[in-house]
Amino acid sequence: MALHVSSAPPISAFHHLLCFFFHDTYPEMEYASSLQRQLASMKKNLFDQGYLDEQFYQLEELQDESSPNFVEEVVTLFFRDSSRLVANIDQALQKYPQDFRRLDNIMHQLKGSASSIGAAKMKNECTSFREFCNKENREGCLRSFQKVKKEHAVLKQKLENYFQLLRQDGPVDKATRSGN
Amino acid sequence: MSSPRGGDKERGRDGERQIHVLAVDDSPVDRAVIAKLLRSSKYRVTAVDSVKKALELLGTEPNVNMIITDYSMPEMTGYELLKRVKESPTLREIPVVIMSSENDPDKINRCLEEGAEDFLLKPVRPSDVSRLCGRMRS
């Protein structure tokens, strides 16, 4: 008759002890890595879903010790400027007869800024709007503008959430931000 | 104030002559980005939001080694700034780089014919700025 002695293998007990030790001694390590995972996942989604493009990485590359919050500052500048431009387009669309040249002009500015922060979906909707402008299609402009506003609002919310989380993470080595 | 036009640059903290670039763009976002790009290459940067302000500055501060300007701006365009600079006996040696979000060959040719040093498509990249480094006015 064989005696089968069953016991927890030594490695499992050691592993448990290790986790206990690290969690207790360095609780911030587990928390930090979970936060960073969340950030990485958020950023990956923003890119995978087409909200952001390569230009956003370019901005991250510019961030350094002399301007540690550069990306957030530029994004804040963008939303301040873009909100003004969106309001101007709203106003201009109310007018009769429609000044398509002026509309196109303002949208050109909005598209340019969106492009500068890597706001890909917004940039594409701006392009569609300009196409309707060129054809002097007011209905098309109105429909397209609703999409521009929607993308603007969605991106604003997503980036606000992202930067809020980023601030919790604290100063981090630039290499972990690039995510290339 | 009576320093010679060529070769007299501001000195950086370590005493090295610092190249001074004047950036002109009415977009606050683009101004922030181009200024940062240039500062990352250790240039001293003055960023203004109009051609009018650029010309005022050029009138009082002669020590500008390069001008980098957006093409499309309200009131005066970057093309008009280029023309004014190239027509001026005191400013014409300053290289002028034009930036634009539109890849318009006619526009590009017109700028180059008027004496633009280079034409950059937005969004401007660090590699675009690196290729300008040998072409600053000394």
β-strand number of chain A:
0
Helix content of chain B: 25-40%
Please, how many helices of chain B?
5
What proportion strand of chain A?
Answer: under 5%
Morphology of chain A? elongated
What class, by secondary structure content of chain B?
alpha/beta
Question: What Rg of chain B is obtained from the alpha carbons, in whole angstroms?
Answer: 14 Å
Largest sheet of chain A: none
Q: What features would you describe in this structure?
A:
The complex is a heterodimer of chains A (about 180) and B (about 140). Chain A is mostly helical and about 180 residues long. The longest helix of chain A has about 30 residues, at about 140-170. Chain A has eight helices and no strands. The radius of gyration of chain A is 24 Å and the shape is elongated. In chain A, helix 1 (about 10-25) crosses helix 2 (about 25-50), helix 2 runs antiparallel to helix 7 and helix 4 runs antiparallel to helix 5. In chain B, strand 5 (about 65-70), helix 3 and strand 6 form a beta-alpha-beta unit. Chain B has about 140 residues and is of the alpha/beta class. Chain B is about 35% helix and about 20% strand. Chain B is globular, with a radius of gyration of 14 Å. In chain B, the strands form two sheets. Chain B has a five-stranded parallel sheet, sandwiched between helices. Chain B has five helices and seven strands. The interface of A and B includes residues 61, 66, 80, 111 and 112 of A.
